[in-house]
Amino acid sequence: MKVDVEIGQMHRFELREALLIYREGRRSFITRHEVLTQKHGPPVLGVAQPLTTAFVENLAESLGGSAAAEVLSENILAKSDRMIAWWTPRRSRRMFYENAEGKMQTLNGKFFPQPPLVWKVIHGGLRLRALAENKRPNAETKLAVAPFWNLSDDGSVCLGSMRCPESTSVASIEAWEKGFYESAFTHANVGRLTRHEDGHDALWAELAGKRRAFPTESLIQLPQTLAQFIQGR
Questions:
Q1: Measuring CA to CA, how many Å separate 55 from each of 21, 37, 47, 59, 161?
Q2: Is the Cβ–Cβ distance between 54 and 62 less than 8 Å?
Q3: Which residues 6+ apart lie within 8 Å of 27 measured at CB?
Q4: d(C-alpha 163, C-alpha 176), whole Å
């Protein structure tokens, strides 16, 4: 078998091993086989061998490159090669609103107190949840709906024109936060974002330009824990 792969340099690749995936519904398992060459005839598969952790790690490294070790700051909650989760305490941030119906236009560009937030970046996407307490959450901490436009039920941010970093490194955190707040909030993706009796618009109108803590009693509490959020459940 001859395979031509354009990778910018001259390399000679030989077929050495094969992975076979067996599936039944959602269940699956994988076997590893040595590829045996024949003097006369096509290559054949050798006896199935179990996958080892070392093989999987080497395969992942060859596909995605070796991730350099990073020093984790105290705000980091979880980290893998393709995912990073962190939290931010309450603070004040400028927010921008842009809506075809003109809603919230008078609040555009003002500073607003923010709730404590949990951020998660995975596969180039951003997800957000809020916290009822202004302290570092643990695995069992229950989360709340982040009361912003542009978010879906699962906390996914509609990226739109948001400037997104290309990495999930510790160094990219500031750029993810900056991209989120510097992009315009344009629309609501879900029906209810807050427990405030007059809804989302009234909540942020009351907070515009105020030097006060975000009223966490206005957050919609969820049964989802931090561990479930990080694990995608």
A1: 16, 22, 17, 6, 40
A2: no
A3: none
A4: 8
Say if residues 194 and 163 touch (Cβ distance below 8 Å). Answer: no
- DSSP labels for the chain? ------SSS-------EEEEEEEETTEEEEEEEEEEP-SSS--EE---B---HHHHHHHHHHHH-PPPP-PPPTTEEEE-SSEEEEEE-SEEEE-EE--TT-TTGGGTT-EEEE--EEEEEETTEEEEEE-SSSS---TT-EEE----TTB-TT-BB--TT----S--SGGGHHHHHHHHHHSEE---SSS-----TTHHHHHHHHHTT--S---GGGS-EEEEEHHHHHTT-
Q: What is the CA radius of gyration of the chain?
A: 24
> What pTM value is reported for the model?
0.72
pLDDT at 9: 56
Burial class (CB in 10 A: 0-12, 13-18, 19+), 133: exposed
Query: Nearest-CA neighbor of 189 among 130, 232, 127, 111?
Result: 127
* Tens digit of each residue's pLDDT, the chain (233 residues): 555 555 555 667 788 889 998 888 878 888 889 999 888 888 899 999 888 777 777 776 666 555 667 778 899 999 987 899 999 999 999 999 988 678 788 999 999 999 999 999 998 899 999 999 999 999 999 999 999 999 999 999 998 878 888 888 899 999 999 999 999 999 888 889 999 999 999 999 999 999 999 999 999 999 999 999 999 88
